[in-house]
Amino acid sequence: MDDKISQLPDDLLLKVLTFLPTKVAVSTSILSKRWEFLWMWLPKLEYDDSEYSPGERYKLYSFIDLSLPLHKAPVIERLRLNFDVYGRSYRAYSIEKLVLIAVTRCVRELSVTLVSMPYKFARLPSNLFTCKSLVILELTGPIFVNVPRMVYLPSLKFLILGCMVYSNEKSLHQLLSHCPVLEDLVLERNDEDNNSPFTLSVIVPSLQRLTLKISRGYHFEGLVINTPSLMYFKILDYLEEYARDDNSNYSYYFEDTPKLEEADIESTYPDINKFVRSIRSVKRLSLCIRVNADEEALYHEGIVFDQLQHLKLCSCGPNWSKLLVRLLKDSPLLRDLEIYLNEDHTSSRVDAPVSWQNQLDCVPTCLLASLETFKWTVVYVDHKKR
User: Fold this and answer.
1) 225 near 210, Cβ under 8 Å?
2) In this protein, which residues make up the domain named F-box (predicted)?
3) What single DSSP character describes residue 238?
């Protein structure tokens, strides 16, 4: 192939290939001898089997198994594997082998997303948990996590853990406690992650952003959060239908977060006193919570949101208006207020009349001095379709 592009230096051609999807970059190997192995020096590899037909997936898996061990790049900056595996088309141990290769090549970003896995869970090599180069790690799907006794991830800043199976209750805590510079954590846990009772603990002094998605069932006993550097907190916490007749409360401990600026809380039957005490410093707050009907106090007197400027409150709960009154009284600097209804909660909404009679002994300070915008989104629900 005698053209000007092929005359360019390898470094420049490789730079061009990095802007192409891996599938396209690999296809350039058929252009000529000049291009045949050039793609094998790529520092970033992404394989997504959703781009292939069911009949082509087996060829893709075989290609990855054969080519990755022979890859020539001394450093693999990024490896992303997104597999919707099924049947007998892929072997669980292949995932462990591919991750091992990436770790030995000083991988900086590793993402493994599995939708399904036949017969066995995918496992991870033990040296992943001592990888000095790893900055971003994402693991999602049927992956068995057995954290070894020797753990140290000195460069890890971003960690995403989807619904996986942990070898024991201490595995997650063991992992998080040995990530000294971790800044961003996204964690999803459900009742199937463990076959025995467990408490979810997030104790990370360096953490700045925390996103939790929790599905509570019979095995989930509690939540412990100790993150003094936290600036952003989001939690989606709900109780499984099958467990609602058993109990609606769980042990909850949330250490004060003096640096917290934004919180987004969606929870079924939370311990609102503990939540509120821990988020008093927020400037932006979004709440969608179900407060027990017999809970008059909502949260203890004397708590003031003296930095809160933006408030969003979902109106799906029966006591949402009582909570709104308390928040207005306790937020003297509030500027923006939005009342909305979560679309997922329209069927469970209790259409109780809003009455503030005898709830307001005086006009809240924010209504007189600071409030600038008020938005109320009304969603009309067809009760006949319930």
Assistant:
1) yes
2) 2-38
3) E
Phi first, then psi, for residue 340 (nearest 5°) are -140, 175
Beta-strand ranges (E) seen in 272-319 are: 284-289, 310-314
Strand pairing report for 310-314 and 284-289: parallel
Beta bridge partners of 338: 312, 375
Quickly name the fold that domain 1-42 has: Monooxygenase (1.20.1280)
Beta-sheet strand order (sheet of 251-254): 198-203, 220-226, 251-254
In Å, how far from its chain's centre is CA 303?
30
In sequence order, which residues have a C-beta less than 8 Å from that of residue 359 and are 6 or more positions away?
Answer: 322, 325
User: Alpha-carbon distance 73 to 55, whole Å?
Assistant: 30
Annotated domain spans of the chain: 1-42, 299-386
Q: State both tokens at 29.
A: 């190997």
Q: Per-residue pLDDT for the chain (386 aa), expressed as one digit of tens each? A: 446 666 656 666 666 667 767 777 666 655 656 665 667 788 888 888 887 887 788 888 888 888 888 888 889 999 999 887 654 545 666 889 999 999 999 999 999 998 876 567 888 999 999 999 999 999 998 888 999 989 999 999 999 999 888 888 788 999 999 999 999 999 998 766 566 677 889 999 999 999 999 887 767 778 889 999 999 999 998 776 655 555 555 677 888 889 999 999 998 766 677 778 888 899 999 998 876 655 555 777 788 999 999 999 998 877 788 888 889 999 999 999 999 987 666 555 554 545 555 555 678 899 989 999 999 986 554 544 43
Give the SS3 label for residue 117.
coil
Whether the CB-CB separation of 45 and 72 falls below 8 Å is answered with no
d(CA 34, CA 12): 13
DSSP reduced 3-state for 301:
coil
Smallest CA-to-CA distance from 37 within 19, 23, 49, 25 is with: 25
281, 275, 277: which is closest to 259 by C-alpha? 281
